[in-house]
Amino acid sequence: MTAKSAAAAARATVYGYPRQGQSRELKKAIEGYWKGRVDADALRATATELRAANWRQLAEAGIHEVPTGDFSYYDHVLDTSVMVGAIPERHRAAVEADALDGYFAMARGTQDAAPLEMTKWFYTNYHYLVTELGPDTVFTADSTKQVTELKEALALGLSARPVLVGPVTYLLLAKPAPGVAADFDPLTLLDRLLPVYAQVLADLRTAGAEWVQLDEPALVQDRTPAELNAAARAYRDLGGLTERPKLLVASYFDRLGDALPVLAKAPVEGLALDFTEAAAANLDALAAVGGLPGRRLVAGVVNGRNIWVNDLEKSLATLGTLLGLAGRVDVAASCSLLHVPLDTTAERDIEPQILRWLAFARQKTAEIVTLAKGLGGGTDTIAAELAANRADLASRAGSALTHDPAVRARTTAVTATDARRSQPYPERAAAQRAHLRLPLLPTTTIGSFPQTTELRTARADLRAGRIDSAGYEERIRAEIGEVISFQEKTGLDVLVHGEAERNDMVQYFAEQLTGYLATQHGWVQSYGTRYVRPPILAGDISRPEAMTVRWTTYAQSLTTKPVKGMLTGPVTMLAWSFVRDDQPLADTARQVALALRDEVNDLETAGTSVIQVDEPALRETLPLRACDHPEYLAWATEAFRLTTAGVRPDTQIHTHMCYAEFGDIVQAIDDLDADVISLEAARSHMQVARELAGHGYPREAGPGVYDIHSPRVPSTEEAAALLRTGLKAIPAERLWVNPDCGLKTRAWPETRASLENLVTAARTVRTELSAS
Q1: Segments of 132-192 assigned E as strands
Q2: What is the SS3 assignment for 70?
Q3: C-alpha–C-alpha distance, residues 326 and 290, integer Å
Q4: Which helix (H) or strand (E) holds 4?
């Protein structure tokens, strides 16, 4: 096919779409099912309606081939485990008794069976459920979900492409099951897994699939020769099948690197590559292998992870270059649109001109369609769209919001001394022990407490004008009083005010800083039914006034025990926002750090002796290629120290991280120079404690003993057993006792019982230590 005919054949597609619905109908239906208010048939009906609405919307916008199989009740990796029969033994009876309830049991756990571990999907804020495998794992095909959803789309008269997690990525993301040797490599199961994928592909072909997409994002990471050989074998075998659809192997989030020649040689009909995060690298690599003559290339030229309008002319130039490298070039977003909100038109509080800088899923769909039209028919066919796009890009570049001379002057003046504590850790630790006088194995929580119905109602009433600010603040004071009273009665040692006034750990601060935009309906799935509204970091950042001092000081006035000041760190403020793309991330991080530094100093001046600056996204934002790690970690750890280094030696700085793999950033955790770090550890059975010990981490740490992402209540003995495991790695004088994460999403009854058990476990182990 010539470049001209390849252009004429260009089509528009996407890899996935937001699942929740315009008003988060899926979240409401699932949570209603969990509470017994919605039955299984009604839940399934809601899901069917949402899928159909999404497909119709995409088709009406001009998408030529809609994705199926990307929809999920909880997580697409968990869906893959069901598809291949990788059900943990502890959940097998539940799944066999009721497939839907068993599915949710794997995701959320039950009182008798812990859920699957949860961690971040590459460097996004989406959490997937980690597959558990062992040498005895037996895979069996169950393509019911995939076939059903394909048939639904075909019945609507649409061209549809099922999307599956690819077999190599699925195994590379898996972990050894409990009781299996830690050095077991799930990739050794590839030959056992491939026949199951072959059966699913055959089932989809029988059901009418012309193409199936196999997502292999793990191949954009550094991979060993053995792993690349496994990928070659997988796609040699799958490509060699006779009863199968055409195969599109998709990668995203970074450059494909050494895996590109492997996939280019495989007997598959198409590749999908990211031309936003790694445009130049993927272009060069594709040219180096001679392109994909006679095959399909899906070019991800619209950013699927951020919300800024596309530079259409730049993307058209990239697409034009690609025309000579493939038999057919189609246009797509760089990854699933799962990672962005649904529609900008629902926003009413953002200035119309600024709103034109933004593109959510529907707007990105329109951009994809416009680019496909321009690629196929020439720029004259999209002249109006190009002119409007140029105006929007110029408006953003020239806006006063994006450039504050005072902020830029302050960041330029920062020196290395500004990011260094005045005394080394051993001297600080002695000063803090003398000042705080905490017991061995001090107990605390991470920060937030359950957001009660009364509190949510009060917040809604304030927005609707049914109560005034004085009435709302009275409710906040009452909530804080109840939280402090409970913690004192339970016997916790370092208290928190509970964050009753906060809507979200990033949004709350973003709404009080200059340079940020907040949305009203910009919901994005974080995990399961947990949705967040990431703010938009659009311009230069500063802090007009104190943000947390008032409520922290009020909480401290209610108790003689120390109350932690609670802030979100600069890297997490970037990672959990839609961050500006018009300057280096390091520059933006420094701006945010200086604003937070002012808040830390004000908290200390107001009498706060313990200040926690959360950085759960430090690992999440780590680049996918090792060669890119040093630069990122240098500015990320500097930003944290810049936030915290201005305090006295006897002020104790805490940080917190959760739901990520920490083993490869332990040196960076050390470089933060925090006095205490709390980390997720309950589901991973204290793995992070062992990793800290292996590194020789010299400061205090609280690996979590209570998994807050499950409604189950850990027993006293369970928490004590985890503590004893932690003590094998961390000395008692440096070990804290805490949950994995904040308690905002939990209900009060389970929170009370769990924290009471946690405190009792700490006391039990203290007694054991004193008797030994």
Answers
A1: 132-133, 160-165, 175-176
A2: coil
A3: 9
A4: helix 3-8
In angstroms, rounded to a whole number, what is the distance separating the alpha carbons of residues 378 and 381?
A: 6
Residue with tokens 């030229």, as numbered in its chain = 301
Determine which helix (DSSP H) or strand (DSSP E) holds 527, and give its type and residue range: strand 524-527
What's the CA gap between 83 and 165, in Å, rounded?
Answer: 10
Cα 440 from Cα 192, distance rounded (Å): 50
Reported as a single tens digit per residue, the pLDDT across 48-99 is 999 999 999 999 999 999 999 999 999 999 999 999 999 999 999 999 999 9
Report which of 134, 78, 140, 132 is spatially closest to residue 107, judged by C-alpha positions. Answer: 78
CB 408 within 8 A of CB 540: yes
Q: How far apart are CA 648 and CA 652, in angstroms?
A: 9
* Cα(478)–Cα(751) distance, integer angstroms: 18
In this structure, are residues 307 and 360 in contact, taking their beta carbons and an 8 Å threshold? yes
Burial of 154 (0-12, 13-18, 19+ CB in 10 A): middle
- Sheet with 246-250, strands from edge to edge, namely 66-68, 160-165, 211-215, 246-250, 270-274, 292-302, 326-333
Residue 276 phi, psi dihedral angles, 5° rounding: -115, -60
Alpha-carbon distance of 759 to 39, in angstroms, equals 38
Distance between CA atoms of residues 371 and 10, nearest Å: 9
CB 363 within 8 A of CB 343: yes
For residue 515, give the nearest of 574, 472, 566, 565 by alpha carbon. 574
User: Cα separation of 367 and 63, whole Å?
Assistant: 11
Q: Which residue(s) pair with 271 in the sheet?
A: 249, 297
Distance, in Å, from the CA atom of 403 to the CA atom of 466, rounded to the nearest integer, reads 38
How buried is residue 37: exposed, middle or buried, by Cβ count under 10 Å (0-12/13-18/19+)? Answer: exposed
> Of 127, 497, 654, 709, which residue is the catalytic one?
709
- Calpha distance 605→620 (Å, rounded): 33
**Catalytic status, residue 709:** yes
Residue 229 Cα to chain centre, angstroms: 30
CA angle 518, 519, 521 (to 5 degrees): 160
Of the candidates 105, 118, 239, 215, which has an alpha carbon nearest to the alpha carbon of residue 166?
A: 215
The whole-angstrom separation of Cα 10 and Cα 372 is 6
The Cα 720–Cα 441 span in angstroms is 12
Find where tokens 């002119």 sit: 387
How many CA within 13 A on the CB side of residue 550?
9
C-alpha–C-alpha distance, residues 731 and 763, integer Å:
16
Per-residue pLDDT tens digits for 500-531: 999 888 999 999 999 999 999 999 999 999 99
Q: For residue 87, what are the contacts with CB-CB under 8 A and spacing of at least 6? A: 81, 95, 102, 106
Torsion of CA 262, 263, 269, 274, to 10 degrees: -150
Output the six-digit token pair for 587: 């520059």
- The amino acid sitting at 739 is P
Please give the Cα distance from 497 to 739 (Å, whole number).
16
Judge contact between 205 and 244, C-beta under 8 A: yes
Cα separation, 139 vs 738, in Å, equals 38
Going by C-alpha positions, the residue among 736, 645, 228 that lies closest to residue 438 is: 736
Phi, psi dihedrals of residue 326, rounded to the nearest 5°: -150, 160
Q: How far apart are CA 219 and CA 222, in angstroms?
A: 7
Give the integer Cα–Cα distance in Å for 540 and 547.
Answer: 18
pLDDT in tens, 230-274: 999 999 999 999 999 999 999 999 999 999 999 999 999 999 999
Confidence class of residue 2 from pLDDT cuts 50, 70 and 90? low
Q: What is the CA radius of gyration of the chain?
A: 26
How buried is residue 413: exposed, middle or buried, by Cβ count under 10 Å (0-12/13-18/19+)?
Answer: exposed
